Fold this protein.
Amino acid sequence: MEKSIIITGGAGFIGSHVVREFVLKYPEYHIINLDSLTYAGNLANLKDIEHLTNYTFIKADITDAQHILEIFQQYQPDGVIHLAAESHVDRSITDPLAFVMTNVIGTVNLLNAVRIIWKDNFEGKRFHHVSTDEVYGTLGVSGLFTEETSYDPHSPYSASKASSDHFVRAYHDTYGLPVVLTNCSNNYGPNHFPEKLIPLCIHNILNNKPLPIYGDGKFTRDWLFVIDHARAIDLVFHKGKNGDSYNVGGFNEWTNIDLVKELCRQMDKKLNRSEGISAELISFVKDRPGHDLRYAIDATKINGELGYSPSVTFEEGLSKTIDWYLNNQDWLDTVTSGVYQDYYEKQYLK
Ligand code: NAD
Ligand code: DAU
């Protein structure tokens, strides 16, 4: 094999799309998916490619420094694409320490492991840290996040991701580690765990359950189809400038209420329900503490320097996403059984 690449968090939502993109596009690379399979990790996301000879799965926890080092010594990766994380803001409000452990300590363990195995010989090596636009905090009604926007995280989740970004840059500045970072906006698409807004609402529309909208629903997010995020990671991993960060987004802002209404409209059509029936499920609930008003990415740098642009419009992406959930209801049933019910009750029915 020409290269071996460890992708952490490859059994999760975005990670599984990144793994698929790399395994299929680069048969000459050995892709090692390293994931501890938390509630959010699901090997069923990769059923279609798991038989391929350039793919290996390893169950490991990035908070376990010794085990991580042993795996890195065994596989000698030329590259790391780091996605493993605790990723849900609401969970970070109830259990911040879990986010410090995985997102901060776990990231530092990976940085230490590559430092040891690369032994200051960084030729052909790259550590790609996948981060979020939430590190920038919140925008008012205007403006966009650029790569120069100061960090100002508000949730334990975004604080832990901001901290991990700082460690990645510190290892570049202090030890010369070859790193790149991407800070992406909200993703949507197949395999998205139904604790997040879009898949939660798809699941609830299918089951005629209330659609919980936090606060007044005027909070704004900038949505990108997950496969377009995977394409951006491919581009930055291969062509991004050493030490640089790239904001990734699709210039596609929606208030939560408008987004959920559009979802209801498309689902009524696809389910042959009378127009407006799903929107009747919309239910305004208590706001999220520390809720950021608006995120919006200025993607000029990645567009201009690397020629990146999203491949699907939001309408197409949302339609594809709904179709995937309608055709994969067994996936949804599996992930919403068991512990999901406890989470749902604590978050929404207390
Ligand atoms: P996810 O929660 O769906 O998946 C996370 C994956 O990491 C799971 O497979 C889980 O098993 C694994 N994992 C968690 N803790 C681990 C540990 N200690 N050791 C090993 N594996 C562990 O998350 P996602 O939405 O796919 O996000 C992936 C990455 O992208 C995260 O770093 C997140 O911060 C970032 N990101 C997400 C979005 C988004 O909209 N979802 C946007 C921008 C950036
Ligand atoms: O911006 C990138 C981030 O997007 C990622 O870094 C995170 O990992 C990812 O989870 C996502 O964070 P958000 O908090 O923006 O996503 P979520 O789907 O949880 O919420 C989207 C918006 O919808 C937010 O304003 C909160 C609101 N919301 C969410 C849920 C779950 C509701 O109104 N009701 C809900 O039930």
User: Anything to note?
Assistant: The domain at 3-188+224-249+294-311 is CATH 3.40.50.720 (Rossmann fold). The radius of gyration is 20 Å. Residues 87-89, 132-134, 185-186, 196-197, 200, 212-214, 219, 221, 256, 288, 295 surround DAU (ligand 2) (CB under 6 Å).
